[in-house]
Amino acid sequence: MTTPPGFGPPIPTQPPYGTPPPLYMAPPAPYGSPAPGPYGAPPPGDGPEFVAHDRRSSVIVDPSGVSLEINGHTMDFPWAAVATVHHAPSPHGGAILMVAVAHPGGMLYECRIDAKRKARLHQWLAELGPVLHHYLAHRR
């Protein structure tokens, strides 16, 4: 009994035009040079920073991007991986700052920081808005 065509081990073949070229990759940046910024824009230089934390969570916004820490787990988002950042006080009252990083793919990552006092929450809200505007304003 013979094996019908299409069954059995694959038949080795040569590519018709030689080996395909590698996928295009940008040349690597020299060591120590800054990575390109979001959407092809140059990376922001020294810029403002924002830091808010409680016992379990923290948010850092600086020239490198946004970092969220929740219960010892840190998520770093360079500006190229940030579509936008939302921030607001908790709708349930209290003194909780909610910060959410929206990824270009649609994922949303949220962190809540307990300010303990409303005065500190209002201070964080007043500081965070201008810092985010500095890094995200060029995207409009």
What does this structure look like?
The protein is an alpha+beta fold. The protein has a domain at 49-139: PH-domain like. It is built from one helix and seven strands; from the N terminus they run βββββββα. The chain has a four-stranded antiparallel sheet, with helices on one face. A three-stranded antiparallel sheet has the order 5-6-7, covered by helices on one side. A hairpin with a 5-residue loop joins β6 (96-102) and β7. The longest helix is centred in the C-terminal third of the chain and has 19 residues, at 118-136. Residues 37-42 have low confidence and may be disordered.
Q: What proportion of the residues is helical, as a percent range?
A: 10-25%
Report the sheet with the most strands, covering strand number, pairing sense and barrel closure.
Answer: 4 strands, antiparallel
> How many alpha or pi helices?
1
Low-pLDDT segments, ≥5 res: 37-42
Strand content: 25-35%
The span between the termini is 69 Å
Largest beta sheet: strand ordering: 1-2-3-4
- Average pLDDT across residues? 80
| Spatial shape | elongated
Structural class, by secondary structure, is: alpha+beta
- CA radius of gyration is 24 Å
